[in-house]
Write a structure and sequence with these properties.
Layout (H helix, E strand, L loop, with lengths): L1 H100 L3 H5 L1 H54 L12 E4 L6 H9 L16 E7 L6 E4 L4 E4 L1 H13 L12 E7 L5 E5 L15 H12 L5 E7 L8 H9 L6 E6 L6 H8 L10 E3 L16 H12 L3 H5 L4 E2 L1 H42 L6 H21 L3 H25 L15 H15 L3 H21 L8 H29 L11 H33 L1 H10 L3 H24 L13 H42 L3 H9 L2 H39 L1
Parallel strand pairs: 1-6, 1-7, 2-5, 7-8, 8-9, 9-10
Antiparallel strand pairs: 2-6, 3-4, 3-5
Length: about 800
């Protein structure tokens, strides 16, 4: 029975074990299944949303593609319609004519007339197509010629602009078109008509007070804008151009009224030719009461400066003024007596009769080799729109006026219209530049050889840039800074602080002890008395609560600033105010940043000494020796000061002054003598047996206070070195790099380099060499291309 019970119990245990094991297995299977299901859902979700995003992206790309294609075909369709519009309209007209023509019954019945009509119509369309093709071929030929001329002129103007960047370039300057005329001649209107925009200031007073060097650049972009290179203003609208020019003109002082400093303006437009103009102040006959009496002569001198060879003179005269009274022709005749490089422009042709206008242009009494061109540069104000080019309006007005007089239209030797003037100016400027090109080429080669030789002899062909010069300056500065750091460390800081605190102790002793006569007679009162204990405790408290943190930090800051100021005044930096300012400012910024944290840490370090100071016998003995040295040094200083005072006023007078005590110097002498006596007395006392042990510290406050100073200095110096000086040594070179290397603009670098005459001379020579080489290469390329084009023309 017992065995059965035991066996049943064992079976029960085994069953429970199996159940528990099966449960564990079941739970583990469930968790694995759930994990797999979750992973499938997560992966599927990611793939689903990723696929949706990808499909949306592809849809957007496809939409964009369709939109672009649609716009492309719309533009293409419009272009095709525009091209065939004229043919379609002509054919529609012919068809309508044919319909109306065939309405007549006798025409419909006559087959011969119908065939004749079809023949004439087909011949008309064939002739029209042939004419159209011929005009297209001519247009292509003209476009090719114009593009070659345009490229040649553009290349010549590029060379001219390169040579203008060279200082003292009088020997190899290419010609410009100089516009001269009286104030009422309309020269500003001529320039605006050529450009097709109103951009020059207007007014009854003299508005052009400075020469305007105007460079027109033909572009293939639709945007029209201006640039002022000297002002670093780019893409300036024409409204703003007018305002800037007016501001620059009125910036001339009232006393001067005009200035020879030019305003440089570049205009970029698809509607302008590549030309260079110089617009000058207009001539005046008499000056007004608010104008200086010398204004007329100054304007004449300014204009004569610009109309010298090789410049082309654009002499503007009004048609309603006889050419014999033209100021522009009169002045140009002085520098160009044969009229070889002068072109006459007669404005306001609509103010005279066509017959008189024609006679003016054909007048042989004042012949010019380049001839005259008559223009009507004014246009109706109702047509004017500042946002549109007005060249077409001017051209239309001129054609309407000049076509009404047959002699203008039938005479090839009579040039009229702004469009004609543009063509003549392009050709004249190109011819003039090409004529000067060969001569200038030789001059540039010779100048380049001289500059290269000078660079080799004087600078050993060492290439120097503004950036290199600044880097060398910074290297010199860092070297001097390194030397300063090597000669100024913990030991120097310790000596400086010790001296200043020792002086504070001497002043404290003089105030609290040396004026008290009882200290010199110790027999009257014991030094163990409470009076002397309080006196020493008060002196220690005054010293430790003096504000040591501010005192020593301020002292060290002042010394570092002074040393950096000395470095900034050295020869290498004295010519560069910005560099000196950067040295001083960097020093001040770093020291100011670290000042408060240094003060706080020094004050925290000396806080224990404000309550208790322990001194052992060894410290006392060393302090005693140091005190003796301090007193001896102070005695020597008093003796030296007394000696200098005696030499200043004489030995005989000094005795009288000391006895009478009537002058300030006598009082100084008495003070020095008294101080010397006190110091000698205290020195003897410190050497005596009474000051041999620390237990007699109340007898010898000089020794105890010196030890206090030593402890204060020892604990302050590490914080001053780590928190202030080491941080300054670490940050200063980096701060300097940010100021003088990384954050300087090219203009600032150029200004700093130009402050050194030798460096400026070398950089200018290098720049001159680069510009000469560039101009030479462009001239050679231009001469080669022109030779090739001439060869092609001669072959054809």
């Amino acid at each position: 029975m017992k065995q059965k019970l035991v066996k049943g119990f064992d079976n029960l245990l085994n069953g429970s074990r199996c159940v528990s094991i099966s449960r564990i297995i079941a739970f583990s299977l469930i968790s694995k299944t759930v994990y797999k299901i979750l992973r499938i859902f997560i992966v599927g979700g990611l793939l689903f949303f990723g696929g949706i995003n990808y499909i949306n992206y592809k849809i957007e790309v496809f939409k964009s593609y369709l939109k672009n294609m649609f716009n492309y075909y719309i533009i293409l369709f419009k272009t095709i319609l525009e091209c065939i519009k004229q043919d379609i309209l002509s054919k529609i007209g012919a068809f309508i004519f044919k319909k109306s023509f065939l309405k007549c019954s006798f025409v419909r019945e006559d087959s011969f007339i119908l065939k004749l009509y079809d023949f004439i119509l087909s011949s008309f369309f064939s002739l029209n197509l042939s004419q159209k093709r011929n005009s297209e071929i001519c247009m292509l030929d003209n476009t090719s010629d114009n593009s070659q001329t345009m490229l040649l002129t553009k290349g010549l103007i590029e060379i001219r602009n390169i040579l203008k960047q060279i200082k003292h370039n009088e020997n190899f300057s290419l010609p410009s078109i100089v516009v001269i005329g009286s104030q009422s001649s309309g020269k500003s209107s001529v320039l605006e008509a050529i450009i097709g925009r109103e951009f020059l200031p207007k007014g009854t007073d003299m508005v052009t007070r400075r020469p305007i060097e105007l460079t027109l650049v033909h572009t293939f972009e639709s945007d029209e804008y201006g640039e002022f290179p000297d002002l670093e203003q780019k893409k300036v609208s024409f409204d703003q151009i007018q305002k800037v020019i007016a501001d620059l003109n009125y910036s001339v002082p009232e006393n001067d009224y005009i200035s020879d400093e030019p305003i440089r303006l570049n205009i970029f437009s698809p509607n302008v030719p590549d030309l260079t103009f110089i617009d000058l102040p207009g001539y005046i006959q008499i000056q007004s009461k608010d104008q200086p009496s010398s204004l007329k002569d100054r304007i004449t001198a300014l204009c004569e400066k610009y109309i010298q060879e090789p410049n082309i003179i654009l002499a503007v005269s009004s048609a309603d003024v006889d050419l014999a009274n033209s100021v522009a022709l009169h002045v140009s005749r002085k520098v160009d007596p044969h009229g070889i490089r002068t072109i006459g422009v007669v404005t306001k042709m609509d103010l005279v009769t066509p017959e008189r206008g024609f006679n003016i242009l054909k007048d042989m009494n004042y012949p010019l080799n380049l001839g005259y061109v008559g223009v009507i540069s004014k246009f109706s104000q109702s047509f004017f729109d500042k946002n549109n080019n007005v060249s077409d309006l001017i051209d239309k007005n001129e054609k309407e006026y000049f076509s009404s007089f047959c002699r203008f239209s039938n005479n090839n030797d009579c040039f009229v219209g702004v469009a004609t003037l543009k063509k003549k100016l392009i050709q004249i400027l190109e011819d003039s530049m090409v004529q000067n090109l060969q001569n200038i080429y030789g001059i540039i080669r010779l100048e380049l050889e001289q500059v290269s030789y000078q660079l080799k002899v004087e600078y050993n062909d060492r290439f120097l840039t503004q950036e290199v010069y600044m880097a060398e300056l910074v290297d010199i500065l860092k070297y001097r800074f390194k030397k300063f750091v090597e000669n100024f460390g913990k030991s120097q800081i310790r000596l400086i602080l010790k001296d200043i605190l020792n002086q504070k102790v001497l002043n404290l002793l003089a105030e609290r002890y040396w004026l008290d006569q009882s200290i010199f007679n110790s027999s009257k009162k014991s030094f163990d008395d409470v009076y002397w204990k309080d006196k020493l405790d008060t002196s220690i408290s005054s010293l430790t609560k003096l504000g040591i943190g501010r005192l020593v930090t301020g002292l060290l800051t002042s010394i570092i600033s002074s040393e950096m100021e000395k470095i900034s005044q050295e020869n290498q930096f004295k010519d560069h105010p910005y560099v000196r300012q950067s040295i001083v400012q960097s020093t001040q910024d770093i020291l100011k940043e670290k000042y408060h944290s240094t003060v706080e840490q020094v004050e925290n370090s000396i806080k224990p000494y404000k309550y208790e100071i322990d001194v052992d016998e060894d410290e006392w003995e060393l302090g005693r020796k140091r005190s003796q040295k301090i007193l001896k040094k102070e005695i020597e200083m008093c003796q030296d000061a007394f000696r200098k005072l005696k030499e200043t006023i004489g030995s005989k007078k000094i005795e009288k002054i000391v006895n009478l005590i009537v002058t300030e110097k006598g009082q100084q002498a008495i003070f020095l003598k008294n101080r010397e006596n006190i110091l000698n007395t205290r020195l003897k006392f410190i050497k005596s047996e009474k000051c041999k042990s620390v237990v007699n510290k109340y007898h010898c406050p000089e020794v105890f206070l010196e030890i206090v100073v030593k402890k204060l200095v020892d604990i302050s110096v590490p914080f001053l070195d780590v928190v202030l000086f080491s941080e300054f040594v670490h940050q200063f070179p980096r701060n300097l790099d940010n100021r003088l290397i990384y954050n300087l603009t090219s203009e600032q670098l150029e200004k700093i380099a130009n402050e050194n005459f030798e460096i400026k001379k070398q950089i200018d020579l290098q720049k001159k060499k680069v510009l000469l080489e560039l101009a030479l290469n462009k001239i050679e390329s231009l001469m080669l291309s022109k030779k090739i084009s001439y060869d092609k023309i001669s072959k054809n």
